[in-house]
Amino acid sequence: MECFGPSLVYMDIDGGMGVGYIFLVVIVVMVCVSVVSMWTIEQRSNKAVSFENFLSILFVYLTVMIGFGLIYAVLQVNGHAILLENGYVFGKGDFLGNLQTSFYFSAITLLSVGYGDIVPIGIGRWIAIIEALLGYALPAAFVVQTVMDFEKK
Predict the structure, then answer these.
(1) One short Pfam family name for this protein (predicted)?
(2) How far, in Å, are 25, 69, 78, 145 from residue 18 at the CA level?
(3) For strand 88-89 and strand 118-120, is the pairing parallel, antiparallel, or unpaired?
(4) Where are the domains of the chain?
């Protein structure tokens, strides 16, 4: 297997569990902790919607976007075809270019329904579905958290 990026995300040649897959587990845990942290942040101001609440949702979105972008990039580097760009399997270029495209796809999937220039295939479809569901659920969770904070007063 050819390595397109740093050895941190490279799968072992003998097919064993490489550092890349351990890296994926760490990313998934960090994204989950970030999403759960929305409910553990205490409101410190007297307003129902505060700047702290806005920053918390912003940082949760950034964490989810970066986390899923890294998941796409690590899987691509490890030889899994999960994204098509302009009809061709994406991931045969330089690592930074792949990372940039993975972040772009992650942001478009999280914040909208996508443009169609990059299309998920295989397991990438399921990962994109999970990310899109998070993108739709996070604003609702933010509203629920705001209402719950407002009702506590």
Answers:
(1) Ion_trans_2
(2) 12, 19, 9, 39
(3) unpaired
(4) 53-145
**Each residue's pLDDT tens digit, 36-76:** 776 665 655 556 566 777 777 888 888 889 989 988 988 88
Over range 8-19, report the average pLDDT. 48
Alpha helices in the chain (DSSP H): 19-36, 51-77, 95-111, 123-152
Whole-number pLDDT of residue 113 = 74
Q: How many CA atoms lie within 13 A of 130 on its CB side?
A: 15
Residue 26: per-residue pLDDT: 79
According to the CATH classification, is domain 53-145 in 1.10.287.70? Answer: yes
Residue 64 burial (CB count, 10 A): 22
Around Cβ 78, how many Cβ atoms within 10 Å? 21
Tokens found for residue 137: 């659920």
pLDDT of residue 148: 76
